[in-house]
Amino acid sequence: xxRTYYHGLIVEPDCKYCPLRFDTKVLxxxxxxxxxxxxxxxxxxxxxxxxxxxxxxSGELLWAYCNLYGFSRDDVWVTNGSLCSKxxxxxxxxxxxxxxxxxxxxxxxxxxxxxxxLLTVTQGDPQAVIVPLGNVALQMLxxxxxxxxxxxxxxxxxxxxxALWNEVN
Length: 169
Fold this sequence. Notes:
With 169 residues, the chain is α/β, with parallel strands linked by helices. The protein is 35% helix and 15% strand. The protein has a single domain, classed as 3-Layer(aba) Sandwich (Uracil-DNA Glycosylase, subunit E). A 3-stranded parallel sheet has the order 4-3-7. It has a two-stranded antiparallel ribbon with strand order 1-2. Strands 5-6 form a two-stranded antiparallel ribbon. It starts with a strand and ends with a helix.
């Protein structure tokens, strides 16, 4: 299988109404085509400084587990639901948007980008495995807005990326 490494945006996010639109974005990366994709909620401090996803303490733990099962970062497409680090935001009016609210707004702004990106990197392969790491990542890939990771732990859920793409366009 011929694969190409890629680091960057495949589909532009809709930053126009996102309170994090001026923040540093952590771009997705990995080899295309991808058969395994990890989707985090948003980058953290270490990811923002390094410019790559899953490089902090949680990332180290994730890659250690992956290595136990015989695969590495080179085998995985790495992305986040939101490209920017979640944080509370002060508006020009002086009002404060709490971190939880900003997380939801930024996820909505990035949802179309995420679905288009995953559809592109998996090349529409229904056998590709997409692993949402966190509730917000799961909700972005689900039609159920109140989905929680613990509800699906140990199960396999089919995701029709083409149907989701049609929904957001």
